[in-house]
Design goal:
single chain; mainly alpha; two-stranded antiparallel ribbon
């Protein structure tokens, strides 16, 4: 899997947010990759003691919250549509290995 190009040059703070949010909200549920909504992202930031003012400005989503949502959405698409079909179960991996 190649990286999602539009997110390659994001600052470390963006990736720290992705990691913190992923750990707080979870990566998947019921076999589906989670795509947290902006309100869920704000709630998780608050729960983690992070500054949610970076996410909402004058009542509207700030660039960071939009970028985080877009990243989670694109990550889910890539994992579900490009990666999942290439995964092997234990029996397939054993057969391929042997």
């Amino acid at each position: 899997m190649k990286p999602i190009s539009r997110f390659l040059n994001r600052p470390k703070s963006f990736w720290a947010s992705v990691r913190s949010l992923s750990q707080k909200i979870g990566y998947s549920k019921g076999g589906k990759i989670k795509i947290p909504t902006i309100p869920q992202i704000v709630k998780a930031f608050n729960s983690l003691g992070l500054d949610s003012n970076l996410l909402i400005q004058t009542g509207n989503p700030a660039q960071l919250s939009s970028d985080l949502y877009d990243y989670f959405k694109e990550r889910a698409y890539v994992l579900e549509n490009e990666v999942e079909s290439k995964l092997l179960d234990a029996e397939q991996a054993k057969t391929l290995f042997e």
